[in-house]
UniProtKB/TrEMBL annotation, chain A:
It is a peripheral membrane protein. GO terms for cellular component: ATP-binding cassette (ABC) transporter complex. It is found in: Cell membrane. SUPFAM superfamilies: P-loop containing nucleoside triphosphate hydrolases. Belongs to the ABC transporter superfamily. This is Energy-coupling factor transporter ATP-binding protein. The gene is ecfA1_2.
TrEMBL record, chain B:
Transmembrane (T) component of an energy-coupling factor (ECF) ABC-transporter complex. Unlike classic ABC transporters this ECF transporter provides the energy necessary to transport a number of different substrates. InterPro entries: ABC/ECF_trnsptr_transmembrane, EcfT. It is found in: Cell membrane. Keywords: Cell membrane, Membrane, Transmembrane, Transmembrane helix, Transport. Forms a stable energy-coupling factor (ECF) transporter complex composed of 2 membrane-embedded substrate-binding proteins (S component), 2 ATP-binding proteins (A component) and 2 transmembrane proteins (T component). One of its GO terms (molecular function) is transmembrane transporter activity. It comes from Secundilactobacillus mixtipabuli. This is Energy-coupling factor transporter transmembrane protein EcfT. One of its GO terms (cellular component) is plasma membrane.
Length: 277, 266
């Protein structure tokens, strides 16, 4: 079942003469991890904001979990969607960790006793319970993003949108956040929509939606997409590490299969090809 | 910046630390109001004893409080000297031109000094023992009756807590901008007044622009998390009025009534 359906979406920023989103249509199936990829300024973040009604599309139709996005349904739709933004500092609303996790619940008029238990549960799930009474100034970027995730767990949405949520973190913080999300997705049966230009992160998704200058290019599995190789570079995207290695080997005239290989696949191939010699 | 103790919070678990911020706010305001009723030895004695008892109950060393007073030292000296030399009336001890040291002058100088110290110390106890957040919560709770007059208490409270939350973030940012400008050759704290004011601009404008961007991002994030407006929200933080608060309130009311009683009925 398609949980997110976007049909012929158009959007143009008031002071711009090009379309930020140009006739985009795609579907996302429930329970999938989908990455939207594209170079900087390709319209990924605009798309995310349109999806939860933070900006109104000029034309087109967005349906989320069977409900069409209109000014009347926007708050109901936001109940179903949790969003983590890029800058960890600018989405930390609460004065302490616990307050921030409770913020979304406060907005939904959850009663206090429920809030108290849910805050603890959510913080335990992201491994931040010991930091419950800390203030944001004393936390690292990765820790702040974990708190943002806890705030989303507490309201148990069906869809999680990550708007470049790991782009301001160090490699370790990024790995940690991604593995926390991986776990949550399993437990809560979430649909994850991650917007990213980090191609290694995108390689872990079930499906990829490629956006270029506001236009929908294609929807594919990572395997299908990364076999395009050079075409990706022309779109302003990077290729994952195994593809780069393959490319470098090809330039040194090593015969290597054309199909996409992930890290393990490539390692296996290298090992077997060495043994054959 | 490290020398300024005024307005700081010092963590602890004392009697005063455990008190409800509302109680502390009410008591401080009451105390400050009553300071202006005290006018002789006995009333000031009561006020001083009450204050020292509170200082002891806060379990913070007196030295820390005195350090809190230091930045205001020159202001105190200045006011006292003005009172000493320009307060006329009563027995004249010393005179030189229009400078007169008289009995009334000395009296009112002593009075002003006492008031100064007492008011600053009581507010220092409040800020030493109460987190800024708690103060914000306390103010919100105390203002809540204004809701009937359609005063946006919840919005004010949110503004206050967001402002407090971003103080350290903005301080860090200001520091970063300063260092960034320094590395590009801006020299802070050099030259005359005009030059110094001019060097502030390259800090202020980026800070201002960043604050706007931040505000946009925060409001987007808040809206995405379902924030509609101040009303119809439940609250996670809760203030609890405990026995400590009632006990302190009783002690304060008894002592402060004694002061007012001595002033008017003796």
């Amino acid at each position: 079942m398609a949980i997110i359906r976007v049909e012929n979406l158009n959007y143009q920023y008031p002071n711009s003469d090009t379309q930020a989103i140009d006739n985009v249509s795609f579907e996302i199936q429930a329970g999938d991890w989908v990455a939207i990829v594209g170079h900087n300024g390709s319209g990924k973040s605009t798309l995310a904001k349109l999806l939860i009604g933070l900006m109104a599309a000029d034309s087109g139709k967005i349906t989320i979990d069977g409900q069409e996005l209109t000014p009347e349904t926007v708050w109901q739709i936001r109940e179903k969607v949790g969003m983590v933004f890029q800058n960890p500092d600018n989405q930390f609303v609460g004065a302490t960790v616990a307050d921030d996790v409770a913020f979304g619940m406060e907005n939904r008029s959850v009663d206090r006793d429920t809030m108290v238990t849910k805050v603890d549960q959510a913080l335990a799930q992201v491994g931040m319970l010991d930091y419950k009474n800390r203030e944001p100034a004393n936390l690292s970027g990765g820790q702040k993003q974990r708190v943002a995730l806890a705030g989303i767990i507490a309201i148990a949405p069906k869809i999680l949108i990550l708007d470049e949520a790991t782009s301001m973190l160090d490699p370790r913080g990024r790995q940690e956040i991604l593995s926390v999300i991986q776990d949550l997705k399993q437990q809560l049966n979430l649909t994850v929509l991650s917007i990213t230009h980090d191609i290694d992160e995108a390689a872990n998704a079930d499906r990829l939606v490629v956006i270029d200058d506001g236009r929908f290019v294609e929807e594919a599995t990572p395997k299908e997409l990364f076999s395009h190789g050079q075409q990706l570079v022309e779109m302003g995207l990077d290729v994952p590490l195994p593809e780069k290695l393959k490319d470098a080997l090809q330039q040194r005239h090593v015969a290597i299969p054309q199909s996409y290989l992930d890290e393990r696949g490539l390692a296996d191939w290298l090992r077997t090809s060495r043994l054959n010699k | 910046m490290n020398k300024v103790m005024f307005g700081r919070f010092i963590p602890g678990h004392s009697w005063v630390h455990r008190m409800d911020p509302r109680a502390k706010l009410i008591l401080s305001f009451l105390y400050i109001a009553v300071v202006f009723f005290a006018n002789d030895f006995w009333t000031y004695l009561i006020m001083t004893v009450l204050l020292l008892a509170s200082v002891v109950a806060s379990a913070i060393r007196l030295g820390v409080y005195i350090r809190g007073l230091l930045p205001l030292f020159w202001l105190m000296i200045f006011t006292v000297l003005i009172q000493v030399f320009f307060g006329a009336g009563g027995h004249v001890y010393w005179q030189w031109g229009w400078l007169v040291v008289s009995q009334n002058g000395l009296n009112s100088a002593g009075l002003i000094l006492m008031r100064f110290v007492l008011i600053i110390l009581i507010s220092t106890i409040l800020t030493f023992t109460t987190q800024p957040l708690e103060i914000a919560d306390g103010i919100e709770s105390l203002l809540s009756p204004l809701r009937r007059l359609h005063f946006p208490v919840a919005t004010l409270a949110l503004m206050l807590s967001l402002a407090l939350r971003f103080v350290p973030t903005l301080m860090d940012e200001a520091e970063k901008i300063m260092n960034a400008q320094r590395s590009r050759g801006v020299d802070f704290g050099e030259g005359g007044l005009r030059q110094r004011i001019r060097t502030i601009v390259p800090i202020l404008i980026p800070l201002f622009v960043n604050a706007f961007n931040r505000a946009i991002e925060i409001s987007t994030a808040m809206e995405a998390r379902g924030y509609q407006d101040g009303e119809n929200r439940t609250k996670y933080r809760q203030l609890k009025w405990q026995r400590v608060d009632t006990a302190s309130l009783v002690i304060y009311i008894v002592s402060l009534s004694a002061v007012i009683g001595l002033r008017y009925f003796s």
